[in-house]
Amino acid sequence: MFIEDGSVYRYGIPFELPLVRTVGWLDRDHVFTQGIAGAKFVDKLWRIIETRTDSFDLHANVVRGIHACNFCGEEIVRKRSDGKRTILGYSELWVPTTESWFAAPTLIVHYVEKYSYLPSSSFVAAVMDVDLESTINAQSVFEAMCASARPIELP
Ligand SMILES: [Zn+2]
Q: How far is CA 18 from CA 14, 62, 95, 100, 148, in A?
């Protein structure tokens, strides 16, 4: 599903989350910014995706089933050095900034690596600033935001 970068988040919910902006919801029918994001950024993105512990987890909205890449149609699986596999496309990645959040499909790292997608510099900075040792749970943040959100008023 395509969502314009920088949109206010309202994916699958009947209200907006004003503190959350979308990034990386690409598809083949829409042009996107391309460029070189840098190996350190790509590596950090993978590490955030692959770090899921009781204290640190930036995955939100895990679904059953795997969403294949919108460009190559493949299910993206990466074999890790520890022998485990990382599968993309079944959850969102929520990345905090000092006062807000970015919400991306986990496939964003594949889009950056394979299709030279270049997300905004503010997203790149937010990813680089993530502390993998911090205590943070994106799903809890999402649920707390939804609990206090006001429904959109219909005309
Ligand atoms: Zn692909």
A: 13, 21, 15, 9, 12
Output the CA 73–ligand 1 centroid distance in Å. 6
For residue 69, the CA-to-ligand 1 centroid distance in Å is 5
In a domain, 45, yes or no: yes
Does residue 29 belong to any structural domain of this protein? yes
Range of the domain at 49: 17-148
How far is the centre of ligand 1, averaged over its atoms, from the C-alpha of 101 (Å)? Answer: 25
Q: What is the pTM of this model?
A: 0.93
Residue 6 placed within a domain: no
**98 found inside a domain:** yes
Q: How many domains does the chain have?
A: 1
Give the Cα-Cα-Cα angle 44, 59, 130 (nearest 5 degrees): 35
Quick: pLDDT tens for 47-86: 999 999 999 999 999 999 999 999 999 999 999 888 999 9
